[in-house]
Amino acid sequence: MKHVLLALDESDDRAVAQAETVRDLFDTEHTTAHLLHDFTDNFEGASVGQIAAVRHAANILEDAGIAVEYHETSGSPSTSIIEAADELDVDAITIAGRERSKAGKVLFGSVSQEVILGTDRPVLVCSRRTEE
Q: How high is the pLDDT of residue 47?
């Protein structure tokens, strides 16, 4: 059984990219996807299941036969991702970068970079496929 952590924010495009990557790369019958959302500001007391991007990713994964578990944290996103990956003992972490200019594509965003450099687990950086 493989366990994959999807670090999801509120972007539907990035959540879809991560879910599609997990669906396409992992054995759907023997994978559990751990959907993590870090609330940096949660004044209304929302839960992870109320985030539209998380629900969309879950639908893609569940439709493919992948087991889904929900997790939420509050604090520094990169620290929360790394700590959750360690606590869950996942086999891989997925993150999704933001769109950047051609020059900006050389660098990852700060959260992505901190996760990549802060863990010894494989990190998949996912992007949405563009149709040409």
A: 83
Task: Output the pLDDT for position 109.
Answer: 64
Neighbours of 9 (CB within 10 A): 18
Q: Per the structure block, which two tokens stand in for 57?
A: 């990713």
Mean pLDDT of the chain: 88
CB 77 within 8 A of CB 40: yes
CATH architecture of the domain with range 2-126: 3-Layer(aba) Sandwich (3.40)
Q: In the chain, how long is the greatest CA-to-CA distance?
A: 41
Could you tell me the CA-to-CA distances from 47 to 17, 36, 94, 110 in Å, in that order? 22, 11, 21, 25
Contact yes or no for 100/70 (Cβ under 8 A)? no
Q: How far apart are the first and last CA of the chain?
A: 36
pLDDT for residue 39: 86
- pTM, 2 dp: 0.88
Helix/strand number for the chain, H first, E second: 4, 5
Q: According to the model, what pLDDT value does residue 132 have?
A: 47
| Inter-residue contact 110 to 73 (CB < 8 Å) | no
Burial of residue 110 (number of CB atoms within 10 Å: 0-12, 13-18, 19+): exposed
